[in-house]
TrEMBL record:
It comes from the Eukaryota. This is F-box domain-containing protein. InterPro entries: LRR_dom_sf. It comes from Mycena maculata.
Length: 462
């Protein structure tokens, strides 16, 4: 019996060992504070999360949770160490969202006051929407009093909110990013560090266009007037244009194009609906207006507008894209494969090409662009082929091409006699599409390994 249980000395030693082990901190508690303060913000819900359009997102309870930064309060309840760290780190409280689409109460003001106090002197990222009454006006006034700390501002305001913002003029020493959807404002004209601007209103704000490096334009209701700011953007590098089929438009004057010599990246993204049938006309006018002689990267993203081939070829010729463009992405554009091949033939300097088929649906025409005709055009031959300088290609396909066409394309790009930098190939096939022949995949992977390049094949659910 005595052999079945440890002696008193052994028992005491075991108890001491267990007690010591229990007192050891969990691995997460051994992380230094500077690491934790980088992790905690990643727990925040995304401001750009599509759920914000849901009615529940707009509810008063949800607004309070976002204003109070509930994710931080939840983390602070884990342990006393995290509580002290979170409440004592002002940078964690630098994001302030004031959404007045629901009722705004004294409780909201109390929470806003506490958040601003906890943020201390840290730079602020503010998001403000819908200032419509006196109580909501007080919230914007409180933020305006802290405008010297604004680093990023996203503002969707009516005339009442715009009137309040006039008080921040000359007191925006740290503002770097502005997203604005408001009546005409001159409050940001003297912001010395403002370089990133997104305009979502008909009337543009008054700012120092000469210092803007990134510009995003939504709507283009009178698009020529909107684009006419480009020649004043002498430091502009990235330009994003979001087309809006709900808009009316005016055409540019005859024989006059808008030139911006510094733009290196252009993204054209379409609208998801076109109730008035303007989308195609707007896209054509935008392409007919622009001249970008320094363009290196072009992204054409989904739009319901039919592709405008001739305006694009004119834009390409005016901008000398044959010499400058090295990156092209075409995603979900209703373009015929023949037009695509003609387009690629005009861009011999391309090194990176990303293509995504239009997803078949009731609303979109099924223009499958990644097919045998395209692959034959990309296949290196003694006669002719498009994109001779290609170094990387990514194909998101519904797989209507034959295995032989794809194999011929891949091997031709890898059989370059100079053996200089074989093309990296990424093939993404929709889960609903037929598989590529497994033997071909194995063969291509073996060749890629031997040539020290990349061949990646995956099936995805889009």
């Amino acid at each position: 019996m005595s052999n079945e249980f440890p002696q008193s000395e052994e028992l005491a030693a075991l108890i001491s060992c267990v007690t010591l082990s229990a007192s050891l901190p969990a691995p997460v508690h051994r992380l230094p504070p500077e690491i934790l303060t980088r992790i905690f913000p990643l727990c925040a819900p995304s401001y750009d999360d599509p759920v914000r359009y849901d009615w529940q997102y707009r509810s008063a309870r949800r607004q309070i949770e976002r204003l109070a930064q509930k994710h931080l309060l939840d983390l602070a309840g884990v342990c006393s160490q995290w509580l002290v760290l979170i409440m004592g780190t002002p940078s964690l409280w630098g994001s302030v969202e004031v959404d007045c689409t629901s009722a705004w109460s004294p409780r909201h003001m109390d929470i806003l006051t506490k958040v601003l106090q906890r943020s201390a002197g840290t730079p602020l990222k503010i998001y403000v929407r819908h200032i419509e009454n006196t109580r909501q006006r007080a919230a914007l006034l409180m933020l305006a009093e802290n405008s010297a700390r604004w680093e990023e501002a996203s503002l969707s305001l009516n005339w009442l909110g715009a009137e309040i913002l006039s008080h921040v003029r000359g007191n925006l020493p740290q503002l770097k990013l502005l997203r604005i959807g408001s009546p005409e404002l001159d409050a940001f004209e003297t912001a010395p560090l403002l370089t990133d601007v997104c305009v979502r209103s008909v009337v543009f704000p008054v700012i120092r266009w000469s210092q803007v490096k990134i510009l995003e334009i939504w709507g283009l209701r009178t698009h020529y007037g909107a684009l006419s700011v480009l020649p004043r953007c002498s430091m502009l590098i990235e330009l994003f244009i979001i087309l809006n089929g709900n808009s009316t438009l005016t055409a540019p004057p005859d024989d006059e194009a808008i030139t911006c010599d510094t733009v290196e990246t252009l993204t054209l993204e379409g609208c998801d609906r076109d109730p008035y049938g303007y989308a195609a006309e707007i896209l054509g006018h935008v392409l007919s207006s622009l001249t970008l002689p320094s363009l290196h990267k072009l992204c054409l993203l989904p739009t319901v507008a039919p592709w405008q081939q001739q305006p694009f070829l004119g834009f390409s010729q005016r901008s000398s894209l044959s010499n400058t463009l090295t990156f092209l992405e075409i995603r979900g554009i209703d373009i015929d494969t023949a037009d695509l091949v003609e387009l690629l033939a005009e861009l011999p300097s391309l090194r990176t090409l990303w293509l995504t088929d239009v997803a078949p649906s009731a609303e979109r025409s099924e223009h499958i662009i990644i097919n045998d005709y395209l692959l034959h055009s990309l296949t290196r031959t003694a006669d002719s082929f498009v994109v001779p300088s290609l170094k990387q290609i990514s194909l998101h396909s519904y797989a209507p091409f034959t295995t032989k066409a794809f194999l011929d394309f891949a091997t031709s790009r890898w059989d370059n006699p100079t053996r200089a930098s074989p093309v990296n190939i990424y093939l993404w096939i929709a889960a609903t599409a037929p598989d590529v022949d497994s033997a071909t995949v194995v063969e291509l992977q073996a060749m890629a390994t031997r040539l020290k390049c990349i061949f990646l094949y995956r099936k995805l659910r889009w």
